[in-house]
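Worked problem 6 (solution included).
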Amino acid sequence: MPDTSHKVHAVEKAIALLDCFWREKRPMSLTELSRMTGWPKSTVHNLLSSMMDSSVVEQSPADGKYRLGLHLFEYGCAISEHWNVVKLARPHLNALVAKTGESAYLASLNADTLLIVDSAEPNNVFRVASTVGNRLPVHCTSQGKAILAYQDAANVRRILKRAGMKSYTVDTIKSAEAYLEQLKLVRQMGIASEYEEYHNGMCSFAAPVFDYEGVCISAIGIVCFLHSGDRKTAVSSETLEALKNTAEAISTELGWHG
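Solution. The predicted structure is:
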């Protein structure tokens, strides 16, 4: 379990309020926010007042409702400066989908889970779709394996302990040691894989993306249907080679010289 002994509860509550605006995507009144959080109006008002001082939250003079402030936009712009990988990866994702006919995703590690930051899908009926912004577990996805394969084993254990290793199918890896053994294979092959570890009838493959310092910051993955449970024919060697080449091309554009 995460260590909560040093958490600042006022900060946690402020973030919870921001989440309310993010989920509803509209201005809200003090009464609405109090009802959503279950906190007294006085508590919500004090938090909002502090957040307004920093322009994180704004209040409409017309109806008195609160909304997210422009300072958050400035934060977002600052973050985007470090997310050039998304911009660089877009044409490569499209090319990978055109070449393989499979759905392709770019994911990054965030708060001990995978965050899908971009995706591209083929124009056919039978495709695997996922939404940008979705979060996925690291222990039973190929992209999680592709990223964690290049992290220190002790840190991988810490991440697995914090995130947990929930069983999604009978094939989900259930121990950290077994997971670490798989990561060794990922480093050897340059490709991570999972067969029905997250969803029955599906498999996925991923390759690591490195920045100019050689740090694995993201992973490119493809998701396929597993027909008749035949893992040998789930994906062709040409598709895996295209996946690997795509990840290397993005890494090169980021300044990696591995």
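Discussion: The first strand starts at residue 57 and ends at 59.
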